[in-house]
Design goal:
The chain is α/β, with parallel strands linked by helices. The chain has seven helices and seven strands. Helix content is about 35%, strand content about 20%. The strands form two sheets. It has a five-stranded mixed β-sheet, sandwiched between helices. A two-stranded antiparallel ribbon has the order 3-4. The protein binds zinc ion (ZN) (2 copies).
Length: about 180
């Protein structure tokens, strides 16, 4: 249950991402606590992609600092060392290097990001540094339904709400569909 709650929390933080090419987030866990979270966004004071457009080079947007780097900045070093990272999508090669150099031991990836650079090197780094990478296929509807159900448990914030939340997967209509 704990991992599911952390996974949901990190996924919610991805909403704060400021580049609409990909909104991701990363959380760092140590000793059963979520110690820090980061999402991809422009560094403080710089304009956001969502406001001024992307900074494109070779089909990558360079404007944002990635969620993993921000998670490392947001987390006390003693928790990053030997810690576990939850990454929405797959770390790019630079973030993989950062996570590895900072001593993260386990990486849980949710879904994948085909545009990610240097994918083939991730496994090399993981092997040399003794990092375990687990790939998770997550049904978000199922995950958030479970979380809503947990919130409706006795004592939960939805327990006395007088209703229960149900997640429904609605098929997309015409213009909502993504090319
Ligand atoms: Zn961008
Ligand atoms: Zn990255």
């Amino acid at each position: 249950m704990r991992f599911m709650v952390f996974m949901g929390s990190v996924a919610l933080h991805s909403v704060l991402g400021t580049c609409d090419r990909l909104r991701t987030a990363c959380g760092i866990i140590k000793d059963k606590r979520l110690r820090g979270v980061g999402y991809n966004g422009s560094i403080s004071g710089m304009p956001h992609c969502d406001d001024v457009g992307h900074l494109m080079e070779e089909n990558h947007c360079l404007a944002t600092r990635h969620g993993e780097a921000n998670a490392i900045s947001n987390t006390d070093r003693k928790y990053v060392r030997g810690g576990q990272a939850i990454v929405v999508a797959t770390p790019c090669i630079n973030c993989m290097k950062d996570l590895a150099a900072e001593g993260v031991r386990h990486i849980d990836c949710v879904g994948s990001y085909a545009n990610s650079r240097g994918q083939e090197h991730l496994d090399d780094i993981a092997r040399v540094k003794g990092i375990t990478i687990r790939q998770h296929e997550i049904d978000w509807a199922e995950l958030f339904q479970k979380l809503f159900d947990l919130l409706a448990r006795k004592g939960g914030i939805l327990y006395r709400s007088g209703y229960r939340l149900r997640i429904i997967k609605e098929p997309l209509t015409g213009d909502e569909r993504i090319a």
